[in-house]
Input
Amino acid sequence: MTLFDSPSFANHEGVHAFFDEKTGLKAIVAVHSTARGPAVGGTRMWSYGSAAEALEDVLRLSRGMSYKNAIADLEMGGGKSVIIGDSRTQKTPELFRAFGRAVDTLGGIYYAAEDVGVSVADIAEARKETTRVLGLKDGPEASGDPSPVTAEGVYRSTLAVARRLFRQDDLTGLTIAVQGVGHVGGYLADKLAAAGAKLVMTDVNAAVLAEVAARTGAQTVAPDAIYDVKADIYAPCALGATLNPQTLERISARAVVGAANNQLATPEIGRILFERGVLYAPDYVVNGGGIINVAAEMNARQTRGAFDPNWVEMKLARLIETFEEILERSAAETRPTHEIADAIAEARIAGAREERRKAA
Output
């Protein structure tokens, strides 16, 4: 199978592979769209089973970033990068400096930030070789770790779902099954517990799981057992595609609201959920808080100003309004939520592309 035959290829503008023999860097950067501005998206470091698996992931993630940035009404396109390797054992400062040099060769069509397996400190190393990275912790424009803002957006979306499905303004009495309590999932678990939810959680990292469970009073289960938890809401906050033919029959929740990207293994899964009466919160809508935070850093850099938390709050509040509009339209039009969200994002991207064509 060639790149263009891949089911995840979605008219990407560019796909770039990088290798550095000295540091062992193996990276792929996928630029899906620059119609709304430079492609922006996080960098994931993961022990992929093969280069083909890494390619599929970066293609799916980069398309998702185009949609995420459009739905959040940001002047940014969509891209993503993956580094093939074990983030626990193969990270070095030199590797991320090599990654920074690779990103710099793209000339500003792509800006990298943090994602799974990559920290603010790692991005700071890449920053030594390129200005085309975001999510820094130092300087007046720095936005820092985007994870808390991502968690805040998912939390507010969970409250919106609770109001709609359970007719309550907090989460008291609701059981939420949280899959993955790393950076975003851990922050989200704190917020859910504070709002009264009973948490059942899992993570492949036993130490992190025990730490988050201790401070939230959560019950813990083995990773595969999370699908069998009798919960009101399922919150996938680890890797994608956990909503698939193998798990659908096991999930009993009335809603899915989580921080993970690409939760639907295929679009058809979203329609099946809808037909079963399960409310699916489109992942790239509810987890858009982090990229809004990153966008504020880019704004500050472009205007030579300072990071503006009020702008972040304004954009985040508007994103939650958009989410609620999607829920309303889904009910009124009897269409799955992910189809409504995709239509909004695609229209915004197409509109920007047409404006650029006219201006050319």
Summary: The mean pLDDT is 95.
